Amino acid sequence: MITRKILLNPGPATTTDTVKMAxxxxxxxxxxxxxxxxxxxxxxxxxxxxxxxxxxxxxVMFCGSGTICMDVALNSLLPDGRKVLIINNGAYSRRGVEIxxxxxxxxxxxxxxxxxxxxxxxxERELEENPDIALVYITHHxxxxxxxxxxxxxxELAHRYHALLIADxxxxxxxxxxxxxxxxxxxxMASAQKGIMGITGLSYLIGRREEIEKSAAYPTRxxxxxxxxxxxxxxxxxxMHFTPPVQALxxxxxxxxxxxxxxxxxxxxxxxxxxxxxxxxxxxxxFQMYIPRTxxxxxxxxxxxxxxxxWDFEKIHDYxxxxxxxxxxxxxxxxxxxxxxxxxxxxxxxxxxxxxxxxGALTISKVQIPVRY
Length: 373
Ligand SMILES: *Cc1c(COP(=O)(O)O)cnc(C)c1O
Hints:
- This protein is α/β, with parallel strands linked by helices.
- It has 12 helices and 14 strands.
- The chain has a 7-stranded mixed β-sheet, with helices on both faces. Strands 11-14-13 form a 3-stranded antiparallel β-sheet, covered by helices on one side. A two-stranded parallel sheet has the order 1-12.
- A hairpin with a 4-residue loop joins β6 (141-142) and β7 (147-148).
């Protein structure tokens, strides 16, 4: 028996015991056919989750945390002499900007307020004025604030101006239903510790084969983190180029089986139910969210610190942690907040239990309830 912990942080998420136990396997060399079958099943599942036709789309895996996919997508898919347009309304898009800087890629950092949807007309103007934009980069779900960006509309704009849409779907993939083609996404990405509820160490990009094939002719800016090289190796050999995260792949296979058993719609409904319980619990205590529900994904609640001299996030965190619940600080500059996420293998009853503990933490800290602003 493994003690069950409720993780309300933005990944890694709570996993099922069957996923945890799937890592415990006899030692195996990843070049064996038996292991290549594991890779193939994971690959098919990853494509299936976003309804991608395997003849048109490929799932390319990397050993690393989610950021590796942002790195790979940006450094590998930009033709020489062309630009990236980053739609920047949050901390994760800002990370995309940093990646462009580190690779010296030409880019436009199109900034919008972090608590609002981006202005589509402004994006269109940028595309119109800069015909050399080859890639439009957007974070589907900004995990820092919980804001859901309109990828489908932005993808349509990108395509109208002959650019590809790269969507960082790390914190929406396998939670919020995505149809890669209908949503106008050319490349999306995620990491096993988030939506599929697997374990850390495995990340993946899902995108158009034709565009990956074309990218063979683009400048190679990284030896290890290159999309075409990994794609071609997987296509030709059925395995990852360098040592894969073996146990993470066994766990991912199990997690994906459980994903399809639960079903896309049921899983999404469960995440929404969890978020509903989070909102209700917060409201009862008087807490305020940073952005309105109408622009939220339904997966992350970014909650403003109350104005109370006894509020001490670290203390509250520690009290909850000791009782099996993990809460997480905010990720917005100049605004003090914390986050509760509806990821992972949890349900509304876990949230009800959490709020009993959380209220206990507030009471012990002598924070006034309902909290004040
Ligand atoms: C979690 C996350 C990532 C990846 O973060 P890692 O710490 O590298 O796993 C990237 N983008 C978004 C939107 C995320 O939520």
